[in-house]
């Protein structure tokens, strides 16, 4: 399976096991910035870790400190291998933009409709620097 | 419609200093938001100086090293420490050091050390119709709704980037056509006695936020201006319960002389509020039933105004509290209390004043596994369970005072 996605923020190509969120999440208060673990007890993927995974997000909600959480994940090497989002969330993605300004290596962020995300759950996938999403 | 930068903006963004970093961040955000251009801003309120981890401190210091300075008036929201020394924050050495460095870096960028989430009561009041870049949800909603200035919700990093660049993406609530209401929140059936009570506004705000979500609503049926502190409580509760960035109250807020004046073209939904809905909202602000146990009381989210502290002193009426009682406020109010000789009234009553920060953003409350906190703030009620581990009992300011004096939950009135 191959998908040409739209690049939202350029970054490093990434490979990893797909982690497909089945509900939107608030990064602040929902993801532990020191580990990447999902701490929101009401979220279906509670307990999973986004670190090193290719993360599929059907949506994001909540706090304007999401960018700070993503920046801290990048800084501490707990960021996802790649981010795949239904729609661009400028607040969250700002975390990647700031990390790039700091000269820290950042994962690529691309766009893929939520309806097309489900099929990737549990598979090992890669996202190229050109935005090509492949199942390995 | 893609983003077009002016030659001057492009030149700044092409540099390698702190101003270039800021301009690039504003421009890239504008691109992600689909904004066609950047617009000049008159002021900023910066929420980014609250410590969430070392990376945020390092970013602020990078801007300082790059020689960046804010180009417009920029006040600071709370940090993780009480720099006035009014109360003790239980942070370990490393985060304390990094939080202090962060607060110092934002000062070095030229931000004012206001350290309050109610900058609009500390002398920062942009004029009606001006574009600004404000962070902190309650400040954003007050700025848009009560002052009629125009801002989106500027999150961490973008707030300081806009303040340095003096620009913001032209999108969202900066555009007049996006400020019109599509939901009428009708409270004309509600008992006027309840609407006149101080407990009404956080409850109304919570219900309003839950009802409108990220849409824009106009409240209908408020006969008299409830005062700024009531609007502050309403906005803060609405922004923590929903994603409210702007509300209108017909006959009260400046963009809504009446309901018709602020309605959007297109379909409008009417939601009629009854006493039952308010009662349910009020009970849901508490996370446990009252058992007789109470460990602490916290008020002041948003930060208490001078008028609210005077009401607190009046309700205390010379009595002393026998529980930890935290009153969160800004240093602008500490100064007024000092001038009026009122600090002693509070300390002799056993009140702990918290300045520059507050009890839900940094560890101040005693570390209790099953603690119970009483508050009159809709915003504290929303965030305290997750951020402090305390369960919440919601009451009026009078309830908070009587409970703290008696040492157990005491409800002085049945409100809704």
Automatic annotation (TrEMBL), chain A:
Keywords for the protein's UniProt record, in alphabetical order: Lyase
One GO MF term attached to the UniProt entry: lyase activity
Classification via CDD domains: AcnX_swivel
Domain of life the protein comes from: Bacteria
NADP found in the keyword field: no
PANTHER family: DUF521 DOMAIN PROTEIN (AFU_ORTHOLOGUE AFUA_6G00490)
Name under which the protein is recorded: Phosphomevalonate dehydratase small subunit-like domain-containing protein
Organism: Tianweitania populi
UniProtKB/TrEMBL annotation, chain B:
All copies of domain Phosphomevalonate dehydratase large subunit-like, residue ranges: 5-402
Keywords for the protein's UniProt record, in alphabetical order: Iron, Lyase
GO terms of molecular function: lyase activity
One Pfam family from the record: AcnX
InterPro entries, per the entry: PMDh-L-like_dom
Name the UniProt record assigns to this protein: Phosphomevalonate dehydratase large subunit-like domain-containing protein
Naturally occurring in which organism (per UniProt): Tianweitania populi
């Amino acid at each position: 399976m191959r998908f040409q996605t739209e690049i939202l923020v350029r970054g490093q190509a990434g490979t990893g096991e797909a982690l497909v969120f089945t509900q939107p999440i608030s990064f602040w208060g929902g993801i532990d910035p020191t580990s990447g673990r999902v701490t929101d007890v009401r979220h279906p993927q509670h307990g999973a870790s986004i670190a090193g995974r290719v993360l599929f997000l059907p949506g994001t909600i909540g706090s304007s400190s999401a960018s700070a959480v993503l920046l801290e994940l990048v800084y501490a090497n707990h960021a996802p291998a790649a981010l795949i989002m239904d729609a661009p969330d400028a607040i969250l993605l700002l975390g990647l933009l700031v990390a790039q300004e700091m000269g820290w290596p950042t994962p690529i962020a691309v766009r893929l409709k939520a309806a097309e995300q489900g099929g990737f759950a549990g598979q090992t996938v890669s996202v190229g620097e050109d935005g090509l999403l492949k199942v390995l | 419609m893609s983003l077009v930068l002016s030659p001057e903006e492009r030149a700044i963004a092409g540099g390698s200093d702190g101003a270039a970093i800021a301009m690039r961040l504003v421009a890239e955000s504008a691109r992600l938001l689909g904004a066609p251009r950047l617009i000049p801003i008159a002021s900023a309120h910066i929420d980014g100086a609250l410590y969430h981890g070392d990376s945020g401190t390092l970013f602020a210091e990078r801007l300082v090293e790059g020689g960046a300075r804010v180009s417009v008036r920029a006040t600071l929201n709370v940090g993780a420490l009480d720099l006035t020394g009014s109360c003790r924050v239980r942070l370990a050495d490393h985060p304390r050091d990094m939080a202090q460095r962060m607060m110092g870096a934002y000062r070095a960028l030229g931000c004012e050390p206001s350290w309050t989430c109610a900058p609009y009561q500390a002398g920062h009041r942009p004029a009606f119709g001006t574009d600004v870049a404000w962070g902190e949800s309650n400040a954003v909603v007050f700025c848009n709704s009560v002052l009629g200035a125009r801002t989106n919700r500027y999150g961490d990093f973008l707030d300081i980037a806009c303040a340095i660049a003096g620009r913001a993406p032209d999108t969202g609530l900066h555009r007049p056509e996006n400020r019109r209401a599509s939901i009428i929140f009708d409270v004309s059936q509600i008992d006027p006695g309840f609407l006149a009570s101080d407990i009404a506004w956080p409850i109304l705000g919570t219900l309003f936020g839950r009802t409108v979500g990220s849409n824009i609503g106009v409240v209908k049926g408020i006969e008299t201006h409830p005062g700024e502190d009531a609007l502050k409580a309403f906005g803060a509760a609405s922004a923590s319960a929903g994603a409210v960035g702007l509300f209108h109250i017909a006959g009260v807020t400046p963009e809504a002389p009446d309901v018709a004046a602020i309605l959007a073209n297109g379909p409008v939904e009417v939601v009629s509020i009854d006493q039952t809905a308010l009662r349910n909202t009020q009970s849901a602000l508490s996370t446990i039933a009252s058992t007789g146990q109470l460990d602490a009381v916290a008020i002041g989210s948003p930060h208490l105004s001078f008028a609210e502290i005077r009401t607190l002193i009046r309700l205390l009426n010379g009595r002393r509290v026998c529980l930890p009682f935290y009153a969160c406020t800004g240093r602008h109010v500490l100064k007024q209390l000092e001038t009026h000789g009122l600090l002693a009234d509070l300390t002799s009553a056993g009140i702990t004043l918290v300045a520059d920060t507050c009890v839900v953003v940094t560890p101040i409350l005693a570390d209790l596994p099953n603690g119970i906190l009483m508050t009159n703030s809709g915003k504290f009620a929303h965030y305290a369970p997750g951020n402090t581990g305390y369960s919440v009992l919601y009451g009026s300011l009078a309830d908070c005072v009587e409970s703290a004096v008696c040492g157990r939950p005491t409800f002085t009135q049945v409100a809704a």
